[in-house]
Amino acid sequence: MADEVPTQTVYPNLKYRDPKAAIAFLTGAFGFSTHFVVETADGTVEHAQLRVGTQLIFLGREQPDDRYGMHSPLALAGTSAAFCVWVPDDSLDEHERRAKDHGARILSPVHGSLAGVREYSCADPENHVWTFSSYSGE
Q: What is the pLDDT of residues 56-103, one digit of tens each?
């Protein structure tokens, strides 16, 4: 069993200054679901796992002395990664409306891409960039 390849082999790990607010936003705006949350004694979220379709993403609290130098895009004045998430084509317009209604900053509205799929891009409140696309892989 230990040598069997799991269904997910890459787990994105995002840092947020306010992970509790990030969880509320990501579940409300994008429809992600909470899988697992670790809180400190004072109720601060230290680590969380959110389900995105059949996959998981990790998120954690930004630490000034993070051993890997990972920070929220708010601290970076930009971001060094963007995340692409599959959404069925017939749900894309409603997904964009929902994201915008929850405060996502739309960077590129729903459009047909050169790759032949429809997509839109937005930023969450801490400026992580998300692209939602009907692209389902090769």
A: 999 999 999 999 999 999 998 888 899 999 999 999 999 999 999 999
Residue with tokens 């790759």: 115
Q: How many Cβ atoms sit within 10 Å of the Cβ of residue 111?
A: 9
- Domain formed by 13-64+72-133, architecture: Roll (3.10)
Task: Tell me if residue 8 falls in helix, strand or coil.
Answer: coil
Q: How far apart are CA 136 and CA 98, in angstroms?
A: 21
* Domain residue extents for the chain: 13-64+72-133
Give the tokens for residue 124: 């969450």
CA angle 29, 83, 115 (to 5 degrees): 105
Mean pLDDT of 39-65: 96
Q: Is the dihedral angle over the CA atoms 39, 20, 131, 80 positive or is it negative?
A: negative
Provide the strand spans (E) within the chain.
Answer: 13-16, 33-39, 45-52, 55-61, 82-86, 105-112, 118-123, 129-133
pLDDT (tens digit, 9 = 90+) per residue, 13-24?
999 999 999 999
